[in-house]
Amino acid sequence: MTAAALSAGPLAEADLDVVELTRRVCDLESVSGDEAALADAIEAAVRSWGLDVMRDGDAVVARTVLDRPERVVLAGHLDTVPLADPPNLPVRREEHPQDGDVLVGRGTCDMKGGVAVQLVLARELGQAVAAGRGPSRDVTFVFYDNEEVEAARNGLGRLARNHPDLLRGDFAILLEPSSAVVEGGCNGTLRVEVVTSGRAAHSARAWRGHNAIHDAAEVLDRLRDHVPREVEVEGLVFREGLNAVKVEGGIAGNVIPDRCVVTVNYRFAPSADVAAAEAYVREVFAGLEVHLTDAAAGALPGLDRPAAADFVARTGTEPLPKYGWTDVARFSELGVPAVNYGPGDNATAHADDERCRVEELHRCLAVLSEWLLADGPARGGDR
Amino acid sequence: MTAAALSAGPLAEADLDVVELTRRVCDLESVSGDEAALADAIEAAVRSWGLDVMRDGDAVVARTVLDRPERVVLAGHLDTVPLADPPNLPVRREEHPQDGDVLVGRGTCDMKGGVAVQLVLARELGQAVAAGRGPSRDVTFVFYDNEEVEAARNGLGRLARNHPDLLRGDFAILLEPSSAVVEGGCNGTLRVEVVTSGRAAHSARAWRGHNAIHDAAEVLDRLRDHVPREVEVEGLVFREGLNAVKVEGGIAGNVIPDRCVVTVNYRFAPSADVAAAEAYVREVFAGLEVHLTDAAAGALPGLDRPAAADFVARTGTEPLPKYGWTDVARFSELGVPAVNYGPGDNATAHADDERCRVEELHRCLAVLSEWLLADGPARGGDR
């Protein structure tokens, strides 16, 4: 290891492959709110590779600035949910009965595998620019903090407020685990409280009161009988969902309850805005007391944009709809079409046996590297 | 005030009427667990009147021991629910728009009015015995602590465990507020948890889980559609009740809940024992997961016993069923038929404007005094 590489930190060495980089990124523990050490290491590495770097809190933005006609943004979050007890670090490489050759440990899937892919790409781009073989598109790498916690702390949201210019681009890829398949757009989400009201009384003389929990039967009946819609948007079929996520009522073991609150989460296709989604929920619960508590619009897939279509063709896979709300919606709000595309099966995220297939690390990297570093048009692309 | 009366405390003076005694008992604050000062004052007073006295914790038992063929037990609790803030002491006497001449303040209704009636009777009995005009029945007065809190702390329950002999009698009257009408027996009460189980999943992909709250629709449907029974027992019609008193489910705002628990309170007529009542509830929720959490049998009115029939006739009122579970059930368990009969409208108990009609204080005292101190048979009685 050279002195220069040493001063550039543990992620900067030129011979680290994506598997070893995933290990190292994972082994720099970074539970939400505690991403500073990892952000420092990433900042040092991308600076050493000659990229234009900006730091905001524990978010790092690294860019090529080549005045290319098109800019692509690659983004990933640095934080993980807390480690299981006992800690499952360091990351292990092992043979999994179903998944074969995998890295196992907190963050391997969600989403330090994706961060490692970003880092290799940043290094390769830095080397290409230094060698005068600059890419055909400018690229922005965004590494951000606090994705796994409440929205107000989200580092990508903070960047969008403080430096919206740094997130601009023609197309964005969020390297969230998607099993190396393009997942387009995302469903919106909103929550309402459906409230029933009664009159308290001693339960020994129930006829003097009115039982609000019994009235909630009507709320649960409608939820149970509701058939979620499937909505086609830009060729992708988004499955919706309308679900009670909480129910709460009751004063004491001998009192007729005067209030019951059912909290309902509606996941709605990105073709509807929040107002339309709220209207739909109010229609389902017509005649009942409904309060909107929070809402976030979904994101349209935007797969008809040239850069997006080109990229999808490059992956050689059929895009799927993304059901969960993700930070692609923040790009969508900035007018940047965005998709999820990254290594790892989301089903193992946050799990005790969180893992990522090594093959997916290599494949994601290869697809992105070929797309970003090749000069010619994509195979099958029609730009 | 004589020196002897002073040493016997604030409740012992021979010229205190039932209204003034109610005031004084109320003004000795005694929220559950803090009854010692009031118990001390009562113990000193009943000792000064020459009764046989036993103290157990903050319960006081005072008796005549005249070897009469029949013994009557009069019982009342000393504690109140906490005072409102600011404290509504001292008690006020005022003209109420509906109720006329009333005492207003914490404890006036539940049940220091009844305790004051007990005290005047104890004093009169002591005087009668001293004067060689002993009553035709022996009388036991029970003043006990912690009725307003969890059953395990109940002073009458503790006496029943430590000194069951002291509670024996042919008939017991609990001076709980009953608007000066005999309320016979009491309903039993049990609680069950009706549990629905599902499978947790992210609410963005609800189809991978199973919503336990939606399944609880079936539980609430059955409760809503249930028609409570009315059961005639010894000529009294007991209204039953089957009510959700709590519902709880939900993990997080984005998770399909895997468990929902509806707590149901069943108030059942005293003709059924706990096993029969539990079987009835299990029938209502057939096919669902049901757990019994607590149960207490009711109490049969026992109005056909001679002492009971005699007393009821003496009151000149038609007895009513008691719906709420009360400590009469503890006497019932000891084989002592018991009724509720005391001053105060139970509807104002625990309320900020808790109050007791002065006329009811005088009437309850007159009825009991005439019954216990007269030598001849009761009017209309058939002993």
Automatic annotation (TrEMBL), chains A, B:
- Output the InterPro entries linked to this UniProt entry: Bact_exopeptidase_dim_dom, Peptidase_M20, Peptidase_M20_dimer, Peptidase_M20A, Succinyl-DAP_deSuclase_DapE
EC numbers on record: 3.5.1.18
Peptidase M20 dimerisation domain spans which residues? 188-285
Q: GO molecular-function annotation terms?
A: succinyl-diaminopimelate desuccinylase activity
Q: Which UniProt keywords apply?
A: Hydrolase, Metal-binding
Going by the entry's taxonomy, the superkingdom of the source organism is recorded as Bacteria
* Keyword Acetylation in record: no
Q: Pfam families annotated for this entry?
A: M20_dimer (PF07687), Peptidase_M20 (PF01546)
Which NCBIfam families does its entry note?
dapE-gram_pos
Q: What is this protein called?
A: Succinyl-diaminopimelate desuccinylase
